[in-house]
Amino acid sequence: MPLPAASATANPPLYSQRSVRLFSLLFTAIAGGVFTAHNLRTVGQPDAARKALWGSVAVVALMAIVLALLPYSPNTGAYTVGVGLASAYGLNGYADRFIANPRDFPTKSIWRPLAICLLVFVPIVALLIYAF
Question: Helix and strand tally (H, E) in the chain?
Fold first, then answer.
């Protein structure tokens, strides 16, 4: 006997792969890693979520070390954009190993994480501008 429609389990909402890419590109790979970790935790993969989060932290740390060792170049912004985009696609590929069809899940709103990221990054950017 099939389950009634009201008691059938629906897929939980997840952050879209596009929002992971956007936040990784605009903020840092850590923001995309947090989104991916949340998605993986939601589908019942806490170990994979932890690896995604720590992997994104490692990418940002490695990028900071490499950029500190490189001589100044006007192309530094392009390097950070490239690394952010590459890490976003890496996070999406990693999540695809655990989430069979992400399009079957409803998308989760990004307004609250966007407000949090802006509350963190706007003062940092303002302090950097003021310092120089």
Answer: 5, 0
